[in-house]
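Annex B, item 7. Sequence and structure tokens for protein A, then protein B.
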Amino acid sequence: MTASSGLDTADPAGPELLRSVFRRHAAGVAVITAQGARPVGFTATSLTSVAAAPPLVSFGVGTGSSSWPVLAEAEHVGVHILGEHQRELAATFARSGADRFGAATGWRPGPHGVPLLEGVLAWMVCRVVARVPAGDHRLVLAEAVAGDPTGTGRPLLYHQGGFNALRD
């Protein structure tokens, strides 16, 4: 046992430890979209800038998710940075079984047929360059080919199991 935490550091780490630690990590909220026979999308807090040249991003997606079969084959994906005014949109894309592209969701086809969400802070269309196995997920690496960073507002954050706004 460590004196400061009360945790036995010799215990093997597992899924609950990872979840508990990352509940304390504030992360930006993105929605990833792709077009197959139907549009798909999911809320992601794992979006990361990987490299500037070429412009690469990464995100994780569960292989058991309803979006995975389309993402497994998609050549291009949409990456959307959500604003603090889009909590309900984030919740819709995070909820299993939700009608993510229903009437309540403003979207349009973008470059390469990728679904683009309206009202976001920024978006990119990215060409998938790799899908790397990572446990029950795949880490997707994608290169930006188009985008618009000109949306207005403040970013939406995910922290302690809920969607939050920045505070000054």
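Protein B:
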Amino acid sequence: MRFAKTSALLATLLLLPLAASAHTGVDGGVHHGFVTGFMHPLTGADHLAAMVAVGLWSALVARRAWPDLLWAPLAFAGMLLAGALAGLAGVQLPAVEPMIAASLLVLGLLVATRVHLPAGVAMAVVGLFAVFHGVAHGHELAGEHGAALTLAGMVSATLLLHAAGIALGWALRHANAWLPRVAGAAVVALGATLLAQAV
């Protein structure tokens, strides 16, 4: 039963590239309120894959449950919020879309290879990419009423997706090595698809 559930989840991850769409405007530019903000990461393939991958990778490489599981997810959520606030303030970064796609390539490779990085390096890597995800959201939210509630929803969904990734990764830590590799490869494929669309 557990193997069937895991296989179904991995099959879903493999289908993510079919749902790939460019990041900006994936929801038609409609951003307002907590529920809309909460739903956006759950319905955008790039966000969903990135946030689950961060949690998955953290769990796969953690040497102990506390605090190793939390460094990268908290860094991602915090820098996502910082990037969104910067975007709201009008900060412009070059190559936002390619960097979002690159984040999936890197995160997918980290999951597939189970590379362990020191906590500070892991936080810096995911935090850098999270800034670009956040800036993209901030630009979409500029001028919208209720931006604070929308951001609160996005951060809440981000933490939930990180937790889902951690739970999946913890379950796969001692499973067959190919299961995390397949999941990582699916994220890489999505990143490659998005990068091809962005350039």
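Comment on protein B: Residues 147-172 form the longest helix (26 residues).
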